[in-house]
């Protein structure tokens, strides 16, 4: 997963499949995106009271509609998932797609997912503790035929995941992390690392401050890889856009995006992910410009 200069998109699961949903995934493949991701939430932010479909069924449908483009989640979390059942869904999805699935995975947050099952929201420490147990167990479940485990939060009793993933030894993990514990998980279990930038400067920071923060995160990832005895170059570095002080400006024109992407590829990122435009939302953008970016930006950057 180490080819430089990839451009991907994330399609929020807000449209019925037969009322434009399928067309978006097909168009994403036609435009040449490397990967089309979707969010894995039960509901999310301003979309809470509108349509919102499940990630795994959506990706399964997308797998049957497309043939070349990779597919994935940005990101799945322990908030409402268990490693045993998730592993079974993932090997099924990987099989349907012919080995085109990447699992983006993170510790989760304090949004609607955190309480939808009737539980109290977990503290940041508990989210980190659960994540630290969730990822290694999921790794085992996707690489071993039978797994037993007794943990603090998750257990498995001879859980079977035969025949395993099409991708060997398993489908790739893209681990979302900025803190030391999460970065260690990325270094040990990830084939890629994901960030949205530094949320502390989203509202008041500058693009220059954002790039400095991202440079610091990349340095911490390299240190975690050194600690794990791994070359940081083995991991793809994925930037999910829309959550830095630049916000939607990179999608205002082809030139603006090329400038933005060039600056971030120069930092060491290998993949940039842009949101598929959604009118009247934080992800509103001109569809024509978006498609021009998809088809022309990488050539202008020299791939």
Summarize the structure.
This protein has 303 residues and is of the alpha/beta class.
**What is the strand tally?**
10
Largest sheet: 8 strands, parallel, barrel
The overall pLDDT average reads 96
Globally, the shape reads globular
Terminal Cα span: 15 Å
Cα radius of gyration in angstroms: 18 Å
> Which spans of ≥5 residues are poorly predicted at pLDDT below 50?
none
Tally of separate helices: 8
Summary tags:
303 residues; alpha/beta; 8-stranded parallel beta barrel; 10 strands
What does this structure look like?
With 303 residues, the protein is an alpha/beta fold. The chain is built from eight helices and ten strands. It is globular.
Give a topology summary.
Blueprint: E1 6-10, H1 17-31, E2 35-38, H2 55-65, E3 70-76, H3 83-97, E4 101-105, H4 124-143, E5 146-150, E6 155-160, E7 173-176, H5 180-189, E8 192-195, H6 207-227, E9 236-240, H7 254-267, E10 271-275, H8 287-300
Parallel strand pairs: 1-2, 1-10, 2-3, 3-4, 4-7, 7-8, 8-9, 9-10
Antiparallel strand pairs: 5-6
């Amino acid at each position: 997963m180490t080819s430089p200069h990839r451009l991907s998109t994330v399609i929020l699961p807000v449209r019925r499949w037969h009322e434009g949903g399928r067309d978006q995934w097909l168009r994403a493949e036609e435009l040449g995106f490397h990967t089309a991701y979707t969010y894995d939430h039960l509901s999310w932010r301003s979309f809470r009271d509108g349509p919102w479909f499940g990630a795994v069924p959506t990706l399964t449908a997308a797998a049957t509609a497309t043939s070349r483009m990779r597919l994935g989640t940005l990101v799945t979390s322990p908030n409402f998932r268990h490693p045993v059942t998730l592993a079974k869904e993932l090997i099924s999805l990987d099989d349907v797609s012919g080995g085109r699935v990447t699992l983006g995975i993170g510790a989760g947050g304090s949004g609607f997912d955190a309480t939808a099952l009737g539980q109290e929201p977990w503290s940041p420490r508990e989210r980190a503790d659960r994540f630290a147990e969730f990822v290694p167990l999921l790794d085992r479940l996707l690489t071993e035929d039978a797994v037993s485990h007794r943990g603090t939060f998750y257990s498995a009793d001879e859980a079977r995941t035969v025949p395993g993933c099409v991708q060997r030894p398993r489908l790739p993990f893209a681990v979302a992390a900025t803190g030391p514990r999460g970065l260690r998980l990325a270094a040990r279990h990830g084939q890629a690392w994901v960030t949205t930038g530094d949320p502390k400067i989203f509202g008041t920071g500058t693009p220059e401050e954002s790039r400095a923060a991202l440079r610091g995160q990349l340095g911490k990832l390299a240190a975690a890889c050194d600690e794990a005895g791994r070359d940081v170059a083995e991991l793809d570095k994925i930037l999910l856009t829309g959550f830095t002080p630049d916000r939607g400006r990179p999608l205002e024109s082809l030139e603006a995006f090329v400038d933005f992407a060039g600056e971030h590829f120069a930092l060491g990122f290998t993949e940039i992910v842009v949101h598929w435009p959604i009118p009247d939302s934080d992800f509103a953008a001109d569809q024509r410009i978006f498609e021009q970016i998809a088809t022309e930006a990488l050539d202008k950057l020299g791939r």
